[in-house]
Amino acid sequence: MMDLLNEYRERRADQNKKVIDNADKVIKRIYSLDTITYTEGALDEKTKEIIGLTTSLVLRCDDCVKYHLEKCVELGYSKAQIIEGMGVANVVGGTIVIPHLRRAVEYLEALSQEIEEEK
């Protein structure tokens, strides 16, 4: 399970570096907008992350789902809360979301295992 986490984290970091190293003004601004979107505002950061997770599931973006799962766990959502949020996404997105839900639950299990091993 740890390979699943490490592979994603390393690949994402490498890809982000390549994008930033080659980014023009538009790409840099999009990255900046993405970052500030999830900062504290009228909604707290934790709420924004669960919204990010559910919308990423509906849009069927596995990389985004993994990113938001990591943030949701980091910000203190319980596994039950995350699963419930993903259930809402599945209802909104329909059965086409089910394969992405499967991968999301697998990733969440790996995150849970990582937390247990750190204790």
TrEMBL record:
Residue intervals of the Carboxymuconolactone decarboxylase-like domain: 34-106
Xref: Pfam families: CMD
Coiled coil: none
Gene Ontology MF annotations: peroxiredoxin activity
InterPro entries reported in the protein's UniProt record: AhpD-like (IPR029032), CMD-like (IPR003779)
Protein name, as recorded: Carboxymuconolactone decarboxylase family protein
